[in-house]
Write a structure and sequence with these properties.
disordered N terminus, 6 strands, alpha+beta
Length: 173
C-alpha cells in the first residue's frame, strides 16, 4: 500500500479502492477497513455529499461504469459433470473399488450388482441435489433485496441491483 499523491490504495477482497489521506484537515487512517472508518471519511473518499446523496446523473454514470450491485450468476454445470461429481464421495469410491476387485476375481454377479448400486446412488444424489437447487431458486426468487438511497436530496428505496457497485478507485475518476 503506497500513497500516490493525496490518495492511498486499499485492497478489500478483490476490490481495489482508494481514499483521500487528507479529509477536512483530518488525517485518515491508511490501511483501515472501510467499515471501521467514519461515515464522513468514507463519504469524502467516494466524493459523495451525505445530505444530498448522488445526483441521478452521477448515480446513472457510476452504475454504467461500475456495474450493478449484484453477484454474478454462476454457470450451471452440465449434467454429465454433476453425475461424475457424485463419484467423488468416499462411499462411491469404495463401491467402485469393490466392483473392480470383484471383476478381477471374476465374481461377475457381485461386480454388476456393485456397479448398479453406484449408478443408483449417483442418480439418487443427483435427484436430491436438483430438489435442493429448485428450493434454493424458489427462495431466491421470493427474496428481493432493496437499498435505501439518497438521490438529489430525496431518500428513496430502489432494487439493490440498481445501486452502483464500487469497483474502481476514486483516484481514477
Amino acid at each position: 500500500m503506497t500513497p500516490t499523491g493525496p490518495f492511498s490504495r486499499d485492497q478489500i477482497g478483490d476490490v481495489d479502492m482508494a481514499m483521500q489521506t487528507e479529509t477536512g484537515g483530518q488525517q485518515a487512517a491508511v490501511g483501515q477497513n472501510w467499515y471501521s472508518r467514519s461515515p464522513d471519511t468514507v463519504a469524502a473518499a467516494l466524493d459523495i455529499d451525505p445530505e444530498a446523496g448522488l445526483s441521478a446523473a452521477t448515480a446513472a454514470e457510476r452504475l454504467r461504469a461500475d456495474g450493478p450491485n449484484a453477484l454474478p450468476e454462476e454457470k450451471p454445470k452440465p449434467g454429465w459433470r454433476r453425475f461424475l461429481d457424485e463419484y467423488r464421495g468416499y462411499m462411491q469410491i469404495i463401491l467402485v473399488v469393490a466392483a473392480a476387485v470383484s471383476l478381477v476375481i471374476q465374481e461377475w454377479s457381485t461386480a454388476v450388482l456393485l456397479f448398479l448400486l453406484t449408478v443408483l446412488n449417483a442418480v439418487v444424489g443427483l435427484r436430491q441435489q436438483g430438489k435442493a437447487e429448485s428450493a434454493m431458486n424458489a427462495l431466491k426468487s421470493m427474496m428481493k433485496a432493496s437499498a435505501r438511497v439518497r438521490r438529489d436530496g430525496v431518500e428513496s428505496k430502489i432494487p439493490a441491483e440498481r445501486r452502483w457497485r464500487r469497483r474502481r478507485s476514486t483516484a481514477s475518476r
